[in-house]
Amino acid sequence: MSNLKDLLGCSGGMRMLRSNSNHKNVRSRYVGLALTDPDAVKFGDSYSLGGSSVTVDATNVAKVLRDMAFKGAVHFFGNPTISGRKGKPTEVMTSKARGTQVSPKPTGEVSEKAEFDFEHFFINTRFFNDLRQNTRGRDVFLFTDQSVQIIRARANQPIFKEIGSSVEDDIQKTIEGSFAIEWNSITGELEPYMGWCSTIWTSAACATPSARLRA
């Protein structure tokens, strides 16, 4: 009988893939979003949080961003005011097949798009009008219930588009809006950083002018 190495077609040293055997699987929705100036928040930075200095990492970056939002330095979309989704990435291919290749092959670079619905869009129209101009770079932090992914302004060049709200002829509904973010990455899909807990999100940060978004 073939051994596992033969079945997998591995060469060199064996490496096991990570699993969630000791944790819940990540839920399929973006539940939080934060926009910062380029490189304003990086893992390994020191930040004064609650009177104590902390080293920013995946376990506390949401708390750091929320604190910065109250100080007017971050635009913060908290749970449960936003929901987001993302499809599979579009792979950038070589220009043509060469030699014995049957088709162009992926280069490793991808382009991606995430779409968001935001409960308080209508009263934040001024902010979104500024966002649609794409006149300055922003880093984007995307949160699921257990992970964070980071779109960097300089490396990934995010573009904000498909921004707007609609007023339906339905008195039972409120006016909500949506927007999309597109970006590219020469190294493939954004790596998720694990370790934080979504229970720290509250809508309070979105409910005050100091968080820079009105509710």
UniProtKB/TrEMBL annotation:
This is Uncharacterized protein. It comes from Salmonirosea aquatica.
